[in-house]
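Illustration: Putative membrane protein.
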Amino acid sequence: MPSNQPHIPERSFGKDFKTFFLRGLAIVLPTALTIWLLVIAYQFVNQNIAGPINSGVRAAVIQFSNWPEPQDKDFVEIFDDLPKIRQDDWEITELDRIEKELGLNNLPGSVQRTKRLEWMKSQDDIVFEARLHAFEEQWDSIRVGDFRVLNLIGIVLAIILIYIAGVLVTSFIGRRFYRMGENLISRVPLVRSVYPAVKQVTDFFFSDDPDEKIDFNRVVAVQYPRKGLWSVGLVTGDTMQLIETTAGQPCLTVFVPSSPTPFTGYVITVPKVDTIDLPITVEEALKFAVSGGVVIPQNQVIKRAGAEQMVLPGTEAEAEESPTSAAD
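Result:
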């Protein structure tokens, strides 16, 4: 006689492990990817922007103050890093003079070290290098783990300088000087070939002028980099006239963001009929790219029979607010 009780699926360690592992992965992976992207961004800024600023700060402190006072060990440690011509000044010129004065053919090692130290302290350029070495050691001594705390000075100064530059350029006088600088750059060979293209790209992303800023008007799916492989792209507009004429049909220019850094990617031109409009927002498309495909828009989650649907934190609320979800 058949039972009316509902069928309870059998539980096993393998199924439970898979369920909870995927659930934990959905919670942990977005956070881990976010931290990873922030670390990459910090390393880039610290190496290419903050690093040179920090070097300038250290050099300015040494140049315009008497601090810090170098110790004997600082002179000893920098000697091998001095230009060879300065090392030769000691070994060929100064050492030879001292030996002749003392009537010796070869000074004892301890006397050589003492005389070399006295000579180094009398050379202004070497004293500067010794003070810089002492300052760098103190600079690097303030740490939290492997993180050099004082390196934040360069990042803070970079933010302040960029802010000041933005304020100055918005003023009438600042715009005049900015245009004068651009005119000078446009006359420099090689630079004038690169600068306009770089400026156009940065204006597309960061300009407040709607005529200069890229307008990603919709999201599409295209078969890229080959047939059978689908990529999510952002439509930037129509293509060039010659391309469309050669293709013989309407075409679109699509920006395919890379993962996990969506500000880089590929610009492709595809026939309009080969694109599929996706009912998602540009923000949802960028989240999909940044997360490596983990964060799927709620209205595009595939509901498979017998599979438990996993909802990422916050996506339910986003789906309710999204007009595309309501339409779906």
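Reading the tokens back as a structure: The beta strands are 143-144, 147-148, 218-223, 230-238, 251-257, 265-271, 276-277.
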